[in-house]
Design brief:
Layout: E1 5-11, H1 16-26, E2 32-39, H2 45-52, E3 56-59, H3 68-79, E4 86-89, E5 106-110, H4 125-134, E6 138-145, E7 155-162, H5 169-192, E8 196-199, E9 202-205
Length: 213
């Protein structure tokens, strides 16, 4: 059995996605280990969640930098201090111009079906409110490889939920988050098994080696 892959988790807020990842690891349903959690705000509750799971933490505070480039340089340098295989964005609310070494090794999850309801300004309940206002009949979540633009990189996993006639943003958010809790670990596990191949805009999922490989 191969060693678990090493993750860095980047966040800006409450850390519910981190909590899900940590619980899956502790339940032995995800072959990974979180090496470090890095927050863009020192008051992010995700740091408390990390410490509760015995995970190392760091802060690269966005507002202390005067540009995306200077912030990105600092974050790249901090990440370089850890030998990680994959970086997971988990409620990471700022733009990061990642260095070349991380391209193809950063995942993000978005609470809608990209390319709908995504990009700058579409985060949290803003997404779900927009879905309802537009009258969409389905929504869901998307796990994708992140690049240097908001919600732009190639898609790995998508899961759908129906939009109900009497939905509120909170109710829709709750159903979407249930699917997020399935989709993100699924995508990370596929990466851990070496089963993801990026081909331009597409991500090919390779067959499992367990089936007579």
């Amino acid at each position: 059995m191969a060693d678990p892959i090493k993750l860095a988790v980047l966040l800006s807020g409450g850390g519910t996605t981190l909590e899900n990842i940590a619980e899956r690891i502790e339940q032995d349903t995800l072959d990974a280990r979180v090496e470090v959690v890095i927050a863009t705000r020192p008051d992010a509750y995700g740091l408390v969640r990390a410490q509760n799971h015995g995970i190392r933490t760091a802060v690269v505070e966005r507002k202390t930098f005067d540009s995306t480039r200077s912030f990105s340089d600092a974050l790249n340098a901090r990440l370089d201090e850890y030998e990680v295989d994959l970086v997971c964005l988990a409620g990471f609310m700022v733009l990061w111009k990642m260095s070349d070494r991380y391209l193809g090794r950063v995942m993000n999850i978005h609470p809608a079906l990209i390319p709908a309801f995504c990009g700058k300004g579409y985060y949290g309940h803003h997404v779900h409110s927009a879905v309802l206002e537009f009258g969409a009949k389905v929504s869901g979540c998307t796990v994708h490889f992140a690049d240097r633009e908001y919600d732009h990189g190639p898609i790995i996993v998508q899961k759908c939920v129906p939009v109900l006639d009497d939905d509120t943003p909170d109710a829709l958010a709750e159903r979407v988050f249930e699917k997020e809790c399935e989709a993100y670990p699924e995508a990370i596990q596929l990466f851990a098994e070496g089963r993801l191949r990026i081909e331009g805009r597409r991500v090919r999922v390779l067959p499992s080696q367990d089936n007579g490989g």
